[in-house]
Design brief:
heterodimer, A: about 300 residues, mainly alpha, B: mainly alpha, 13 helices, globular
């Protein structure tokens, strides 16, 4: 197990370097001079000084190595548009908001999605099953911008007198409710469908029949045998769910005016603040890669058969 | 052979069909006759002709038996027909501004109402659908193309080539989807149909490559591949005739899984204001228009969003039905 973990951790290093390289090269391809803020051309002497300061007078691979060094020391460089801000400041200010939103959304999804899937599977082919799956399919298909907008329309506008929920902002728990639901609906339906499928599959297994045959109470069979074995494949959903959370948070933060990293990213792209764009892209990549690492190790722990296949 | 050749044997000229002599076809038919003679002879003795089974015919029959998939296919075609036909039959100008008609609620004249410039939303939804579908189909095609070439190369050559290509793919999986697509659009510096297609392709071809590679590797272990090599077939022929052809079913299923994802990706980008420029529209920009007016006219955002949901659900159930229909292992079930 230890060897597997060490091997897996070492493998993330070239992956990180490659991802940073891809992002770096894409940023190099973007046309335009980042220092030319106004119409006036930058004087050559100043341009030369700036180039030297940011190592732009050196070949691209040297610039890349400088950037890797900076990333490794957790320094994402200055913002090009807001002169008094580093990208680090931006991240420190906005990332915690996004993480809080994402964690709450995923908890919402787990707490409601897994019981829903379990219920649908245990009542297989009943009215309850069909109702649960219809709900899950609708939640799966509706784009998050519609869910978010309708939540605002009904619960923050029409039912304002009963719910007292704000339409936007990120101050206090009452402003968390709607964004968390809007972001959490899709993962919730994802979990519900996945758990329903795995539970139905697990119930076909011989050990479930054995457990029933030896006279275990049904609650114990479901709790100890069905649910535990059904939840292992759910761990693999972490990858797609994290990808969705990042994409979805862009939309939800935009609609609810939440000062998170996604909204700042969109503002930076339209404002051409490319060092921020690059910094956030690299940061999100690191989060994804580390999450994949954790999932692989967790899966290796839960299901020993996968240790040798995955490096 | 199921044709009435047992009961009323056809003459040689009849068999040629339409007066055109097709010797290759005839020889193949004779060959197949010889192969199935025992079976068809037995069928004739029992007074019944054996139905001839072909992969695609079988798949079609199995697909038609799955009610959910048939409904989904009809829904999908209906949506496609809607976006294609409506702009032809509508008299409304999708770009003409008329502020006296702004924000009309749905009526007989404007079934979907009008937007803030008084433009008819029925025809704009259809036109937006054309853009969304167009980008969706084009990007899906490119994703499949890149994915097949990459995945088939890795799977077919195997060994070090496979290792290197797959390690690279693993690394790409670390890139966040939406930011990566936004970055590619930033590199182009302009957003139009084709830059959008390329951005969506670059951000999402990985899974197609991985799926194709997996299938090729599985197929390579089949005896008929070894047999093909044994009778002297060369690599490219095996790759094309035996491996890629047999991936086709999987690819068709995958198209219906990829299409909604790409269309949703475009909608997200357009919704954030990073997509197609006005006055052109896609479902994403229409949703964005609706979002700005949600407090007073909430139905405007509902229309394009329901179109997207309709597409996602129908494509999903089509893919589901196709998977069952094209996978011979579930044939007996």
């Amino acid at each position: 197990m230890l060897a597997f973990i060490i091997r897996r951790i070492f493998w993330t290093i070239p992956v990180l370097l490659l991802v940073i390289l891809m992002t770096f090269l894409l940023m190099k391809l973007i046309k335009g001079n980042p220092f030319q803020v106004t119409e006036r051309p930058v004087p050559p002497a100043i341009q030369a000084n700036l180039d030297r300061k940011f190592h732009l007078d050196q070949p691209w691979w040297a610039q890349y190595l400088y950037y890797v060094r900076d990333v490794a020391t957790f320094n994402l460089g200055p913002s090009l548009v807001q002169r008094n801000q580093d990208v680090n400041d931006v991240v420190k200010e906005h990332l915690p908001v996004s993480i809080k939103l994402g964690v709450m959304a995923i908890l919402f999804a787990i707490v409601l999605g897994i019981p829903l899937g379990l219920y649908a599977a245990l009542r297989h082919n009943s009215v309850g099953d069909y109702a649960a799956m219809t709900f899950a399919n609708i939640g799966f298909a509706l784009p998050s911008f519609l869910v978010a907008t309708l939540l605002i329309y009904f619960f923050a506008l029409r039912l304002k007198d009963y719910t007292h929920l704000p339409t936007n902002g990120w101050e206090g728990p009452s402003s968390y409710v709607l964004p968390v639901i809007a972001l959490g609906i899709y993962p919730m339906t994802y979990f519900a469908r996945l758990v329903r499928g795995t539970v139905l599959e697990t119930m076909q297994q011989d050990y479930i029949r054995t457990a029933k045959a030896k006279g275990l109470r049904w609650k114990v069979v479901v709790g100890k045998h069905v649910l535990r074995n059904s939840l292992i494949p759910v761990v693999t959903a972490a990858g797609p769910i994290l990808g969705y959370l990042i994409t979805g948070s862009f939309i939800v933060e935009f609609i609810f005016g939440i000062p998170g990293i996604g909204r700042y990213y969109v503002t930076s792209v339209t404002g051409r603040d490319y060092s921020v764009v690059m910094g956030i892209t690299v940061l999100l990549s690191v989060i994804i890669i580390v999450a994949n690492l954790v999932v692989d190790i967790l899966y290796g722990y839960l299901d020993p058969r996968t240790r040798d296949e995955r490096t | 052979m199921s044709e009435p050749d047992v009961a009323t044997p056809k003459s040689a000229t009849e068999r040629r069909g339409h007066g055109v002599d097709r010797p290759l076809l005839r020889r193949r038919q004779e060959f197949e006759d010889a192969l199935s003679r025992t079976a068809s002879a037995r069928g004739a003795e029992a007074g019944a002709s054996l139905p001839r089974a072909s992969l695609w015919g079988d798949a079609f029959h199995r697909f038609m038996k799955n009610k959910a998939s048939v409904v989904a296919a009809v829904a999908f075609l209906a949506l496609l027909a809607f976006v294609i036909i409506v702009p032809f039959v509508s008299n409304e100008d999708p770009y003409a501004l008329d502020f006296s008609q702004a924000y009309q609620s749905p009526s007989w004249e404007h079934p979907f109402g009008t937007d803030q410039f008084g433009r008819d939303l029925l025809v704009r939804t259809a036109l937006g659908g054309r853009v969304s579908f167009g980008i969706g189909f084009a990007a899906t095609f490119m994703i499949m193309l890149v994915g097949i070439v990459y995945g088939a190369t890795a799977g077919f050559f195997g060994g070090q080539v496979d290792n290197a290509l797959m390690r690279f793919l693993d690394a790409l999986y670390g890139l966040p989807y939406l930011p990566f697509a936004i970055l590619v659009l930033a590199v182009f510096g302009t957003v139009n149909f084709w830059t959008m297609v390329v951005a969506l392709t670059v951000a999402s071809w990985f899974t197609a490559a991985r799926v194709v590679r997996g299938q090729i590797i599985t197929l390579k272990q089949n005896d008929y591949v070894r047999a093909a090599y044994a009778v002297g077939a060369r690599g490219p022929r095996v790759l094309y005739r035996h491996l890629l052809i047999n991936t086709l079913g999987l690819i068709i299923v995958f198209v219906f899984l990829e299409l909604p994802g790409v269309i949703l990706g475009e909608a997200f980008l357009s919704f954030l204001g990073l997509g197609i420029n006005p006055p052109k529209a896609s479902w994403g920009t229409l949703a964005q228009d609706g979002y700005t007016a949600y407090a007073t006219h909430p139905y405007i955002i509902v229309i394009p969003s329901v179109c997207i949901a309709w597409l996602i659900l129908s494509a999903f159930f089509i893919a589901d039905g196709l998977r069952d229909a094209l996978d011979p292992r579930t044939k007996e079930a």
